[in-house]
């Protein structure tokens, strides 16, 4: 179905194709087209982007209130609004939107309007838009709100070659960071980090990577570390942060647990902070989105913020897209497109 004119309500099909987790793995199935609740948008999906959390769902693990066989897949997507709930006033039929929720790897998906952004005025495609909601919200919360970045402070993004990591480099610079360091274990990825705001790129698999950070900060340490890795790197992360500095844990790509040196934590007086959207209400997410639009939208409109797309695959190759995500050979985002 093509985009509809604003205010025009299209005739909805009863069935659609969507990616589901089954006992045998990921499968494209015929499903009923969802109907929007009072605060929801029904969106004709044009593109969906994968995040690490999608692998959790594909593995049968829980992500927020979802998980296990029978779970519709897809947490982030873009498309056209084709129907709205009774309590929605900020969007109309025909709007182009970028959303988060569940079931975005389908021909149609519903999203709460408070978890949805309208496209920026600058013309961007559906694929690019599908990569933005999670990265914009997550980086703003991690850097500006939880991390409390002050202008001129130094920032280290640990695990910077993911989509959200690359956005973190850009947002740190945009919000006034001084020195920005990004890490990646792959030389080809480190070579590209400068294009996204990194002044220095470091290999976090080097045994002395924390010492390298200290050398680049004249022995002082980094002011704010945005951590996408965690696990066994936590103690080196604390060694790389200045006395009285902050670590914001966003992801746990290197592991969900690890030895923690409590004495080091205490001696360096580090604030170790966590952030997630899984425990936030729709109203809380909406408040964050308003801050994002106030602080980041002018740069987005000007083309100064964006995430590279490493691969874009059609819906019938969705399992291949998940395999690419799991292989961790991509730089930026993996996108699944719809006709």
UniProtKB/TrEMBL annotation:
It comes from the Bacteria. Residues 21-336 form the Enoyl reductase (ER) domain. The keyword Transferase does not apply. Keywords: NADP, Oxidoreductase. InterPro entries: ADH-like_C (IPR013149), ADH-like_N (IPR013154), ER (IPR020843), GroES-like_sf (IPR011032), NAD(P)-bd_dom_sf (IPR036291). Pfam families: ADH_N, ADH_zinc_N. This is Zinc-binding dehydrogenase.
């Amino acid at each position: 179905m093509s985009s509809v004119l604003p205010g025009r309500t299209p005739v909805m099909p009863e069935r659609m194709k969507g990616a589901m987790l089954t006992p045998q793995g990921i499968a494209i199935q015929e499903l009923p087209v969802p109907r929007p609740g009072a605060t929801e948008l029904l969106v004709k999906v044009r593109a969906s982007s994968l995040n690490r959390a999608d692998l959790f769902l594909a593995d049968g693990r829980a992500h927020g209130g979802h998980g296990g066989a029978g779970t519709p897949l897809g947490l982030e997507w873009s498309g056209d609004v084709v129907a709205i709930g009774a309590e929605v006033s900020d969007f109309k039929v025909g709007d182009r939107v970028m959303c988060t929720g569940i079931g975005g790897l389908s021909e149609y998906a519903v999203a709460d309007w408070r978890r949805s952004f309208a496209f920026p005025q600058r013309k961007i495609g559906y694929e690019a838009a599908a990569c933005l909601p999670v990265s914009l919200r997550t980086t703003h919360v991690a850097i500006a709100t939880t991390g409390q970045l002050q202008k001129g402070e130094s920032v280290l993004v640990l695990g910077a070659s993911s989509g959200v990591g690359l956005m973190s480099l850009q947002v740190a610079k945009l919000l006034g960071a001084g020195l920005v360091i990004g890490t990646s274990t792959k030389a080809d990825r480190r070579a590209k980090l400068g294009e996204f705001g990194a002044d220095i790129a470091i290999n976090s698999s080097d045994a002395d990577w924390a010492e390298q950070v200290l050398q680049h900060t004249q022995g002082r340490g980094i002011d704010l570390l945005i951590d996408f890795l965690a696990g066994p790197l936590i103690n080196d992360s604390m060694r790389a942060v200045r006395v009285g500095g902050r670590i914001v844990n966003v992801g746990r790509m290197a592991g969900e647990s690890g030895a923690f040196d409590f004495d080091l934590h205490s001696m360096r007086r580090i604030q170790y902070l966590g952030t997630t959207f899984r425990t936030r209400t729709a109203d809380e997410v909406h408040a964050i989105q308003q801050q994002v639009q106030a602080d980041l939208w002018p740069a987005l409109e000007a083309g100064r913020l964006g995430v590279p797309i490493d691969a874009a695959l059609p819906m019938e190759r969705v399992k291949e897209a998940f395999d690419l995500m799991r292989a961790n050979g991509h730089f930026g985002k993996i996108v699944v497109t719809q006709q």
